[in-house]
Write a structure and sequence with these properties.
By secondary structure, the protein is α/β, with parallel strands linked by helices. Helices cover 54% and strands 12% of the residues. Helix 3 links the parallel strand 1 and strand 2. The chain starts with a helix and ends with a strand.
């Protein structure tokens, strides 16, 4: 074995050793980068945007939040019943107060008009009844009052008023309201905008006009409200 061959062999071994060490360092760097990227992604989890129009969801006091979605006349009746049960069960089972519960009932589509007070029903009951596909259960005619209100004559009589007193809030669909106002305006020869203003001035207590009921469903859940659809 000559000296030249031995020197060449040792040089090759030194080169390979250095190459292995370098690969290890590159691997560690890549692994570290992957870990950092994963950590960064975890820290940047998606969060919903907040809008001033939706601040009222957070202003309702309560350590538990529940939203009831209604789109039919019957759905509104069931929502009032379920919401009543929700308050009662929390009081009896957990000793909670009404103020411990944040409750929102969404009135949209054919349930929208049940967020209007008796004055609107008395004046425009025929058109409202047609839109809601609902008649007074007793007379089988267009109602002259909000049958779910305190002055109503349904099995849910008084429940809406009682829930309002407990602090339950109502989100009222503006899109459906404008559609109802358009129907009323055509039947009575008046301006749509004037009817919309009249309705807004005659909502039931604790009501909030929202751009669309389906939007309120989304926003309430993004603000931490558990969801149930009442049909």
């Amino acid at each position: 074995m000559n000296a030249k061959w031995l020197q060449s062999s040792m040089a090759r071994r030194l080169f390979l050793a250095r190459l292995g060490a370098g690969a290890g360092m590159v691997g560690a760097t890549v692994a570290g980068s992957s870990t950092a990227m994963a950590q960064g992604a975890a820290d940047a989890q998606w969060k919903p945007a907040r809008h001033a129009q939706d601040d009222w969801y957070d202003k309702i006091p309560g350590v538990h939040r529940f939203v009831f979605d209604t789109s039919t006349a019957d759905g509104m009746g069931w929502a009032l019943q379920f919401a009543t049960n929700y308050y009662t069960a929390n009081q009896d089972g957990y000793g909670l107060k009404d103020s411990d519960l944040a409750v929102v009932i969404i009135a949209r589509h054919k349930a929208t008009s049940f967020a209007y007070n008796d004055a609107i029903w008395a004046k425009y009951g025929k058109q409202i009844s047609e839109q809601a596909e609902f008649v007074d259960p007793k007379t089988k005619e267009a109602p002259k009052v909000n049958v779910y209100g305190a002055a109503g004559d349904s099995v849910q009589v008084g429940k809406m008023d009682a829930l309002i007193k407990k602090g339950a809030q109502f989100a009222v669909c503006q899109t459906s309201t404008r559609g109802i106002a358009t129907r009323i305006a055509k039947a009575n020869g008046v301006e749509v905008d004037s009817v919309v203003k009249e309705i807004i001035a005659n909502l039931i207590p604790n009501s909030h006009m929202v751009p669309a009921g389906v939007l309120a469903v989304n926003r309430a859940q993004e603000h931490g409200y558990s969801f149930i659809y009442a049909i």
